[in-house]
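pasting for the record
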Amino acid sequence: MTPDWQRLFPDADYRPAMGLLRGTAEDFWRDWDDRGTLVQERERWLQAAPQHYTCRLPGSEQAVAEASAWMCQFSARPEPDWVLLADPADNPKAAPQVIAGEVVFPSSWSLPEKLGLPLPAVHEPVPGLETSLGASIAVFLQKLEPGPVWLRENWGLAADAELNHHPARGLPSLPAQAALATTWLRLEHQCLLRLPHHRTVLFGIRVTCHQLSALAELPGMAERIHRALASMAEPMARYKGLHHARPALLEELAARL
């Protein structure tokens, strides 16, 4: 799946956005790697430290079984990470909570730490997200019915092209002397849908990594990336781990304008 880079980096100042588009389940959940190396890497991490990557609340077994059967329509061993959200039984209008999942390639967060939390609490570490988008997210999820598949993308920057950025690995963050050629854009492809029987929300995540220098060579992209980085509020830059690297990256990008 080729990203729409101009949509991801619009000619505008940076701001969090839902950016939802209708898509198809097959396009997201089918195998993207026909060599099988992605599944092999998933299995390696799951065997090494399953407690970091997979968890479920007691009583979620049937909902998990439904989600697993749904995903396996498209692949015997699905490639994407996934999180299952359930509406509270005593208050269907309340925020859904994390009841299960398997997230092997997280972007510096831990699924077991989110287990049982309502969605606003999951989003709490992201500066300004609940303030700017919390109400819209809540309305969207309340109205979400089985059938439609919604896609969105989210980006960050990293000092490597590793897929697994679990905090337990202690990977180095971007340094102050970062350069475009040694910086990777970490792109999360996300999928949202509601399953029919238990009415849980299945949230799929795929990560792809793209060298920032190659992206900046595309027509008009150096200017768009420069604007996004320059206009990003400091709390968000710190959350994304790029605040130390931002001056050097902006200087190199400015030289390409």
